[in-house]
Amino acid sequence: MVPLSTELRGQFPIKFPDSKREAVLSLFLSLILISCSPLRVENGNPDLSEDSNHFLLYQGKPLNGIFVQTNPTLLEVYETEYYKGVPHGRYTAKKQNGILLEERNIRYGQKHGEQVSYFENGKLRQKSEFDNGKPIGEYIDYFDNGNMATYQTFYESGKPKVSKKWNRQGQIYMNHVFMESGESFGRPGSKLCEPVPDSTKVENSK
């Protein structure tokens, strides 16, 4: 008969869980996760209200959390981070199946930082940048075929500096340069959109 000590040599004894200890630990971890997760409030919640300054309130206090709105017609969900009752943080627009349509940053109710939107197929639709609500850098949007639709740049004041627009076929129909005073210079769109003659047709007509 093999001694019991020989059978256990090199092996680790099986430890059965202390069910009470694990239950307490599980509850503790759950409370941590809940406390770390931001508050999410759906539009239409009876505890939502507005004060006289249009601050969003939840249970009578300025909302600190995520305000969720759903558009059943477009099948879209919009989530906005709020801080002390005003939009502050990240905003996203998604289809209900999770496809990202738009993401932007908000600083105390004003657009701030990079703003990007997409077509449902994932292609870039628009990108721009703001500084406390003031457009800076470049603004570009695209057609769903990938061609550029609009290109704009701005002065430090946020006023437009250059503005160009194209049709879906890639033909430019507006090209303006703006003075900061508001005066603009550019070619008429009708002249910019005149089609270029096809070389083969020109040869055949001779």
Automatic annotation (TrEMBL):
Protein name in the entry: MORN repeat protein
SUPFAM superfamilies, per the entry: Histone H3 K4-specific methyltransferase SET7/9 N-terminal domain
Start and end residues of each stretch annotated as Disordered: 185-206
Top-level lineage group: Bacteria
Species per Swiss-Prot/TrEMBL record: Leptospira terpstrae serovar Hualin str. LT 11-33 = ATCC 700639
